[in-house]
Amino acid sequence: MNLRNIIFVLLLTVTFSSMAEKASHRKAAVELVKLTKVSLLVDQMYKYAENLIKANLTRMRVPKEMQSIVDTHSKKMIAILKADLVWDKLKKQYIDIYVKEYTEAEINSLIKFYKSPLGQKLLSKTPEISKQAMAVGQKQMTLVMPKVQGISKNMVVELRKEHAKLKAAKDKVAKKDVKDKTSKKEKDDPKDKSEKK
Q1: Helical (H) or strand (E) element with 147
Q2: Mean pLDDT of the chain
Q3: Are residues 189 and 156 in the same domain?
Q4: Which of 20, 74, 115, 132 has the most C-beta neighbours closer than 10 Å?
Q5: Phi/psi at 60 (nearest 5 deg)?
């Protein structure tokens, strides 16, 4: 066997070995994603987005005679969510993230953990813990938002005052420019002076 053939065989071996490692790494990521029920996160994301759209449309307080327009567009928005925020469209991207962020050994360790009794408990309790944590965050936001809204109102008042000042200054400059142009024109054109007399 000559040197060229040896190099070729070595390259093939390295390539196939690398492909096999990538395939097993990806397979492990797929198992971890299934085990941790990441697809449920996508379902929650969809429900959150749908509720957000509905809440924002409700806040619009559209008159009854125009509600059908809102309903039509609301259905279109939700149809987009149903079509695009689905696990089948996001699965590959989620798996890519796991493959990128964890080594195969780390993924295998995570799989081992999530298959353990403690890992199973973590998986079963996470939705309830997340729900409770969300409630705590929302309660805190109800305390924070009035303060933020107060600052926002003050900012709007200040912006309006500043806008009025800037507009007045701009109008004053514009009037002065008109006056200056008029007086210059009068100086330059003696006919205008004699006609005015």
Answers
A1: helix 117-188
A2: 82
A3: yes
A4: 74
A5: -65, -25
C-alpha span between 83 and 148 (Å, rounded): 36
Q: Are residues 139 and 62 in the same domain?
A: no
- 39: tokens are 């697809």
- Cβ atoms of residues 49 and 85 within 8 Å: yes
Same domain, 136 and 192: yes
CA atoms of 33 and 41, how far apart (whole Å): 11
Tokens 């330059």 found at:
188
The string of pLDDT tens digits covering residues 6-40 is 665 556 555 544 454 588 889 999 999 999 888 88
Q: Is the dihedral of CA 159, 164, 169, 175 positive or negative?
A: positive
Phi first, then psi, for residue 63 (nearest 5°) are: -60, 150
Return the structure tokens found at 54. 């509905």
Kindly report, residue by residue over 123-178, the tens digit of the pLDDT. Answer: 889 888 888 888 898 888 888 888 888 898 889 889 999 999 998 988 888 888 77
Angle (deg, nearest 10), helices 117-188 and 104-115: 120
Query: Which tokens hold the place of 15?
Result: 């390539």
Number of domains in the chain: 2
Q: How far apart are CA 76 and CA 124, in angstroms?
A: 35
CA distance 71 to 22: 48
